[in-house]
Predict the 3D structure of the following.
Amino acid sequence: VIEAMASGTPVIAMPFALGGLGVIDGEHLLVASDAREMAAKVVRILCDRKLARGLATNARALVERNYSWERSVADLERIYELAIKKARGGLETPPISSAAEARMAD
């Protein structure tokens, strides 16, 4: 899902594929709960180019903001710092971004 969003493609996905991504239905992508709804949303995107462009633009911006290599490395560094500090006796820890927390929860 993240790769499709990063490529600038409008995305339609089932709810189980979205765990922890922080996406909003109708803003970053469309969510379909069954095959019939999926087909209807595909037709909707094909017929509404403005919607398709908006979803694709918003989704790509979300990916660039939350899933860049720089952001991933920074989040990983914070996670390592947190683990080291906890192992050394639980010193005050820096905050972890919501994207990193979501990845840790999965």
